[in-house]
Write a structure and sequence with these properties.
With about 300 residues, this protein is α+β, with helices and mostly antiparallel strands. The chain has eight helices and 18 strands. It has helices spanning about 25-35, 65-70, 105-110, 135-140, 180-190, 215-220, 250-255, 300-305, and strands at about 15-20, 40-45, 50-60, 75-85, 85, 95-100, 120, 130, 135, 150-165, 170-175, 195-205, 210, 245, 260, 270-275, 285-290, 295-300. The strands form four sheets. Strands 1, 2, 3, 4, 7, 10, 11, 12 and 13 form a nine-stranded mixed sheet that branches. Strand 5 (about 85) and strand 6 form a beta hairpin. The longest helix has 11 residues, at about 25-35. The chain is globular and about 70 Å long.
Length: about 300
């Protein structure tokens, strides 16, 4: 019996706004999506814990050149805390290590959030992917080791209580990269004097991207092969917050050859990243704009091929 033919991998460019399911690692979600689209090249833009759900932007083809921008972007989450219990992992996956009575009120919970807005310091959890001597901290934790970790500064841009039915409280938080929402939940619990751990974590935003238009792996699988590409957002969905610069035909050729171009008046100021488009509205890539001159930064290969 002949083995079934493998579907050939193909080059395609775009961004998939995936609504990651519970229990699946970010890498496993990426591999499944890559297989569903028969894509040659794909990458994610920062991991979500297996016990977290929600927005996981996946980059295909040329979009991978801009994935670093989403790694640096602010993130928005909704998280449910269970007050009165601490666990080994800071979430429901770990074993309960401490139980205390919950004597606070919903008003107390809301008031406690005042101390966590703005610039704060966090000690990264042992159950995290941060590396020490080339090994992630969670490997030490699973072996029963606890290492000293330095506190790091992160920024909580927005923090609100959206539901409270004690001992459960649900918060919405927008934070800088490197923020551990599990640690935030634990710290809020300590501020209330009863401890806490996360029972639910859902990411609803990455930079300017939201769950609007996001799809599940099941929805992709149920879509006909010939229509799946329509589920991808264009590459410039990653760059929507950048100022747009349009070039004429001659400027397009020069840009694709890596040349600097004057595109406006010489106005003093700090360098600014911009997204650059050809005369026919194709995205060419990104550039640094300084005093009316753009310097090519990341150029899309497919644009060069069709110029």
């Amino acid at each position: 019996m002949n083995a079934p033919k493998k579907t050939p991998r193909r080059l395609l460019d775009g961004v998939l706004l995936l609504d990651k399911p519970l229990g699946l690692s970010s890498n496993d979600a990426l591999m499944r999506a890559k297989r569903l689209f028969s894509a040659k090249k794909a990458g994610h833009t920062g991991t979500l814990d297996p016990l977290a759900t929600g927005l996981l932007p996946l980059c295909f083809g040329e979009a991978t050149k801009f994935s670093q921008d989403l790694l640096e972007a602010d993130k928005t989450y909704e998280a449910t805390l269970k007050l009165g219990e601490r666990t080994t992992t800071g979430d429901a996956e770990g074993e309960v290590t401490d139980r205390r009575d919950v004597t606070c009120t919903a008003h107390d919970v809301a008031a406690s959030l005042d101390g966590f807005r703005g610039l704060i310091r966090q000690v990264p959890p042992m159950y995290s992917a941060l590396k020490r001597d080339g090994k992630p901290l969670y490997e030490y934790a699973r072996a029963g080791e606890t290492l000293e970790r330095e506190a790091r500064e992160v920024t909580i841009h927005h923090l609100e209580l959206i539901d409270c039915a004690l001992p459960f409280a649900t918060i919405r938080v927008t934070c800088s990269k490197g923020t551990y929402v599990r640690t935030l939940g634990e710290d809020i619990g300590e501020a209330l004097g009863c401890g806490a751990h996360l029972t639910m974590l859902r990411r609803t935003g990455v930079g300017a991207l939201t769950l609007d238009g996001a799809v599940t792996l099941e929805q992709i699988d149920a879509s006909p092969l010939e229509s799946r590409d329509a589920l991808l957002a264009p590459v410039d969905a990653l760059l929507s917050t950048f100022k747009r610069v349009d070039l004429d035909a001659e400027q397009t050729k020069r840009f694709l050859h890596g040349q600097k171009l004057r595109v406006g008046e010489r106005v003093a100021g700090a360098p600014e990243r911009v997204r650059v488009y050809a005369h026919d509205a194709r995205l060419l890539g990104t550039a640094q704009l300084l005093e009316g001159v753009i310097a090519p930064e990341r150029v899309i290969a497919s644009s060069s091929e069709s110029a």
